[in-house]
Fold each of these.
Amino acid sequence: MSNMILLGTRKGTVILDYKNSTWYPRPIEHAGIPICYATRDPRDGTLWASLDHGHWGPKLSRSRDGGATWEDVLSLKYPKGARYIVKVLPTPDFDPLAPAGQPEYADATVFKIWNLAFGTAAQPGRLYAGTIPGGLFVSDDGGDNWALNRPLWDHESRGGDLFAGDATSENRWFGTPASIDYGVFEPGIHSIVVDPRNPEHIHVAVSSAGVLETTDGGRTWAGRNRGLLNDYMPNPEAEWGHDPHFVTGCAGQPDHLWQQNHCGVFYSDDGAKSWRKVSQPDAGVHFGFPIAVDAQDGCTAWVVPAQSDMARMAIGGGLCVARTTDGGQTWQSFRKGLPQEHAYDIVLRHGLDVAGDRLCFGSSTGNVYLSEDRGETWQCLGNNFPPVYSVRFG
Amino acid sequence: MPTVQMTQHLYRFFPVLENRTIRVPAGSVAEVLHALNEIAPGFIDYVLDESGALRRHVNLSVNDTLVIDRKNLSDHVQDDGTVYIFQALSGG
């Protein structure tokens, strides 16, 4: 079981260490800088933080000595010629059925490095990063150099190869509200799931497009959105335009994938070939952002339900965590140790993690809770952290 | 040679630039920034994006005039000029 928790927060990276039955937070690192994701590479122990500087641009920071010292990693950049079709934030009179006008193009720059993932033990140095605006970057040398995955960037669902010229197909990826802070309305890759059995097999999730899969190491990609249902488009079963909030997979049963989507909780036991909605709105399990799955049992998952979707706050002023152990057929809510009145927390998409029997989540209001018994009871690790963007066991 | 002054916020990331008079050869703003990057490697990534344009929340002026060409940074810096680099106000 992990004895380290990394918090990516609005005001820096907080690392908590477990010693003598107590969790101790270290002094904050990257003080004052928003950290949208912080994680530890299980292969070599390198710590990573994604800096979301307000003025100085997104950057990665890396520590190879357990957090004692950190260094900038400045090499993640879009190559010259990378362009995207500009999306415009829909206005109240937006008509999704209106014919598309002439596309407008923009040169790509990194707005946000939203997520990091690691290759398998057989691929030392292989890292993945997902960005706004919708780029998957790959490194094979521990992050010293990064390359944009062109087949995904050039995918026909985004208009084709815009390095070569104008769009050859329609752009079906929508923007994410998470991009509005950067003055744009563009998609973002927030979930990257590498199959431990076969590192050539990867799923990524995009807000707001859906899930894509490669089985050949990123040379080709295909949408994997069958069974997803959206509530905000004329065709709920459209191939694209879905809004996964987070997608994760079971390490021990990699065909079991889970998705907390804008429009419910979805589960796949066939490697995302098909999804089925396993929300239970009567039990509050429907809207939310994060989802975690057990490392061994692909039928067991946890969510932190939230009030959908106009409010985006705890349901009824009380926090709960819901768990299923039967692939979403039934859900059980746990509240012991969590505030049950005057709680307005929302837990963001990277704000929940599981390691063995331990779970931890952090909220937008700076509360961090830990469970040692698979989510059934909770203890508070602190109420005065900055707003929490990510929680990951080290 | 032109001098460069900047917000002290940048000294946190580039302490080599603190407590010194920074002088670089005259030229375009782009050339001035590349010269700064020689003194403080990585500096340019803080003020420019990968297309070479000034980041959205960064302001740069030559003397008391904000640069006009934020994309290519072609504005010229005279030998006796001063370049100021500071963060754009983006919150109250």
Amino acid sequence: MIRHRAGYDDIVVTAPVTLPYVRYSIHGAHWFLAGALAALLKRAGLDKTRIDGLCVSSFTLSPDTAVALTQHLGLTLRWLDHVPMGGACGVVALRRAARAVQSGDAQGVACIAGDTNHTDSFRLNLATFSQFARDAVYPYGSGGANASFAFLTGYYMRSYGAKREDFGKLCIAQRANALKFPHALMKKPLSLEEYLTARLIAEPLRLFDCVMPCAGAEAFLVLRRGEAEALGLPYARVLSTIERHNAFPDDPIQFRGGWALDRDELYTQAGVGPRDIDVLATYDDYPVISLMQMEDLGFCDKGEGPDFVRRNTFTVDGSFPVNTSGGQLSVGQAGAAGGFLGLVEVIRQLAGQPLGGAVANAKIGLASGFGMINYDRGLCSGAAILAARGGPA
Amino acid sequence: MTDPILMQLVAELAAGRIRVVDLTQTLSPDFPQIVLPPEMGQAWPFRIEEASRYDERGPSWYWNNFSCSEHTGTHFDAPVHWISGRHLPDGSTDTVPSAHFIAPACVLDCSRQAAADADFLLTVAFLRKWEARHGRIPRRSWVLMRTDWSKRTDPVAYQNLDETGQHTPGPDTAAVRFLVEERDVLGFGSEAIGTDAGQAFHLKPPYPCHYYMHGAGRYGLQCLTNLDLLPATGAVVIAAPLKIRDGSGSPLRAIALVPAPAGARSRVRASANTAKRRGAKTRR
Amino acid sequence: MTRPLLRPPRKNPVVRTRLPTLPPAGRSRVALGLTAAAARDRFELQVCRDCGTVQYPPREACRACLSQRLDWRPQDGTGELVSETTLWHSHELFYRERMPWRLGLVRLDCGPVVVAHLHGDCAAAPSRVRVRAALDRAGQATLIALPEKDTPNMADDRQLREMTCDPKFRKVLITDAKTALGQAMVEAIAAAGADIVWAGYAEPWKKAPGFDRLKALPQVAPLPLDLTDSRAVKDAAGEIGGRVDILINTADYHRNYGIAARNGLDAARAEMDMNYFGLLRLAQEFAPALRGRGADGQSSAVAWVNLLSIFALSNFPPHGTYSASKAAALSLAQCLRAELSAAGVRVINVFPGPIDDEWSQLVPPPKIAPARLASDIVEALRGAAEDIYPGDIAQEWLARWRDNPKTLERELAAASH
């Protein structure tokens, strides 16, 4: 049943910002978040005092949360949120901020996500990621999600006939996209041979199936269209969003995500269909999840992912542009900023301000979010459909 | 009158014309302890625990705490040790007259007989034969039964237990009564783990040496060593137990003073005696 | 197919000994319920008393109906292997040193999906498996999926061996090998494939029938050892401590007195000196050597077994002072367990009921035969539990004690009148 939800009227997203990623940094998360906020303000031509709402996502801000940042960064706010939802934080932050501005609770909300990365950050974060991870996953030796997604990749290959070459095709296309993107940490082209023979991580996953943890930050600003135009800022319009947590809890393994429950609502509210999407950003912590999003977001049927991959090309100039800045697999995963990366790239494409390759005639974009492997599956799923200025109402 | 004699004793000792023979086994955890049936109260073996050894428990000193029975190692039996002596005055280690700590000793060489028969019993006949050779046993002297049992340094051989119990030499009933009633001795000493023979439970009365000696207010010495270094007569034994209130006995340092000529012979014999009990050194 | 274990080559004395590392040991309190069951060789999961849902990972409330009335109930562990992987990379030192490592995702027949270690003989997914809970080297419960039916040499699986203390090719010290139980223990451990069995004995002048027979076994090396003598324990540790992989403390001084039945302290003191202080002396001298060898190759130091008694849980008044000495030993064994945990050496506490020997002569049957007890201890070493209760009496008293310790106290007092 499709619930009728309020639309997003004249809410827009603007000032997409990426702070350059680095592999390791001696700075704390506060440094990256401050940097992203400063870059956003500069981009928007706004003084700090003009921002009255803030939404923050970070894994390495501890012991601080968003509240501490108000004093740390000298902000006096009417609206504040902290979104600890990993790869879904971009879409969720957009949802929160959009309603705040729409209702008048805030005039403009800066959404920022960023993390630092020390040589032991990843290992320490894993050990305390969640109670279930600590009790039921970490003791088995696989740090983080590698084992869970190895299980899923193997299951997916067995169930739907996906081959490693299919995953490889996506990774190679994203690498080609990344070579044009100035902030990507991966700077060498990737061949299928290299992809197939790379170091084993957790069978069947090899090195290039996994993201590289790094430090960095992303940000965007949510405003009413009138204000964005008054400031002379390029923007993208928000057509629809969805969000879901702990979907399909009784599935033995996560072969489908929450989008499958909510995608009809997503497209209905936006007034478009999958064929209308010009540029897609999937949350790509592992290639199998990108295929799952393509299926669950309606670009093909469940199980048709491999076939869909074989029939399309995914570079900026391909038949179906995906992760046009390179995705996390080629740019790097700067902690929670990984949940913003795809959304920020779609905003740039639709606002006509790409940093790397441009998707020709990009009018409608879809950014998907996924994250929080609490135990054996990602609990959060979300998506947002945005439109370029002057596109469909 | 005694003054010059005492000074002479000291001078003779210093000159080596009187030698000191150590009759005592070294107290160590390895020394065998008397075996009683499991249902009985047991005599503790010697145990020793460090309190500190120039370490964090005591930087500049070394000391131990130890525990044992009153009847562990070379030890003295007081009259109250046995039921027959329980009512005697001056019967515990704190009330035994200290004048009794120094006394002459007669050493009965049963080593050949004990080697042939672990259950050898000392008899009146043996005593009479000994007296024929060495003279009458003086009253208030120690009678020490030399069996060379202390040369059994293997604890298993020293205990000499089998399915019927312990097999060690000792006196028979008549011999004990003779020594107490006819010779008025101070006490009986043995190299083995008891003054009574290992199978003395089966004599009448059981354990006659304990029964009659202690019943008459006499004493016992056990686990002696180096009796082979003593002359048959003429040695003076110094055996002073610890002054334990109501004590039934105690481990002690038992020594003998012997004249030098015998000592010189003893020295030759000591060097020939190379057998050493594990953990127990015999020193003259 | 699991390859049978081979005798490891001799250790290269020039190479540094690998130090013990452990799998991650942190668990929430509610997850420790799994460990409590695995310690007794049980696989238990939370079952909701109100709606019957079985859940995993452990939670503070029922995931289905939010009820907080959750009971830990035994599970048979049967299920379907949904997917699998082999790790070639880990951030954890323990696993890094043991790559590659096979893991599986299993959907249990009772409902939940579990991540588990995967035995090498489990067929590729989809396949039927049996999941059991084992204690890992960190002493925490971990799940391992085994093939549906036993396979040859199954116990020799490299990953499963990280959860067990198999005596095969190991060197074992049995502190008192003279008693009936001690002798049975020597025979059972030798039959289980140990390379050396040091047979401890005290008071050599007291012969034990049957002890001499043991010396004929090629693996057996008699070892003088009196647990009441600190120096002797120190000397024994100096001589063999650096080679002991498994220590089985069978030394036991057992008399049948409560408080009123015996004047004086002699029997009680002897019981404490052997059963409690003996363990302390042994632990002070031998634990350091075992601690250093927790990861020393295939024949690493791996277990410390204490022969306690079911009387340690609740005093058996006819053997009252003995029970107290065993209770003291139990407490100390818990301390030892904590101190050895960082080295991955498992302390196994054995709580038999009355053993069929002279000191339980007046206790009515059922009593456990020494040979049976010895074989139960060998099974515990081959398994992955740490508290075992051999025999019918031990099982029954344990059940009563877990149900309500106070009622067992009353029942034992009544039985002794």
